[in-house]
Every structure is written in structure tokens, then in C-alpha cells.
Specification:
By secondary structure, this protein is an all-beta fold. The protein has a domain of about 50 residues. The chain is built from no helices and five strands. A three-stranded antiparallel beta sheet has the order 1-4-5, with no helix packed on it. Strands 2-3 form a two-stranded antiparallel sheet. It starts with a strand and ends with a strand.
Length: about 70
């Protein structure tokens, strides 16, 4: 059961899944990133808190923001 999803900064918003995800099953953690004023590569982290033995899992994603042509 995912209890919380915490982004690494204020430019990212995340939603935890409403329904439980069974062991071995797949689920979706939705996140959106506000790219305004953040040109170039951006490395973001989501901390996913759950009732697994580890307690917390880290999801990392990279976004390349390009300027207007």
C-alpha cells in the first residue's frame, strides 16, 4: 500500500495511487513538472512511501527542457 508520494522540489506535483497495488503487480504514480524557467536537463526525484519492508522507494526521472525556436 502506498501511503504517500513526496516530490523533491516545489516544481513537481505527484499523486499516489488510490487503489492498493498487489505484490508483483504494476501501478501508476502520476507526476507533473512545471518547466517554466528551467531550461536544460532537470533531474527530479519522487520518494514513494509504502508498507514494504524497505518503507521508501525512490523514483528518479530526467527531463530535458528546450527553448522556443
Amino acid at each position: 500500500m502506498i501511503s504517500n508520494v513526496s516530490p523533491s522540489c516545489g516544481c513537481t506535483v505527484a499523486e499516489r495511487p488510490v487503489q492498493p497495488i498487489a505484490p508483483g503487480a504494476e501501478g501508476i504514480v502520476r507526476a507533473s513538472f512545471d518547466s517554466r524557467g528551467r531550461l536544460g536537463p532537470n533531474h527530479k526525484t519522487l520518494n514513494v512511501y509504502s508498507n514494504t519492508p524497505e518503507g521508501m522507494h525512490r523514483l528518479v526521472f530526467t527531463v530535458e527542457v528546450l527553448g522556443k525556436e
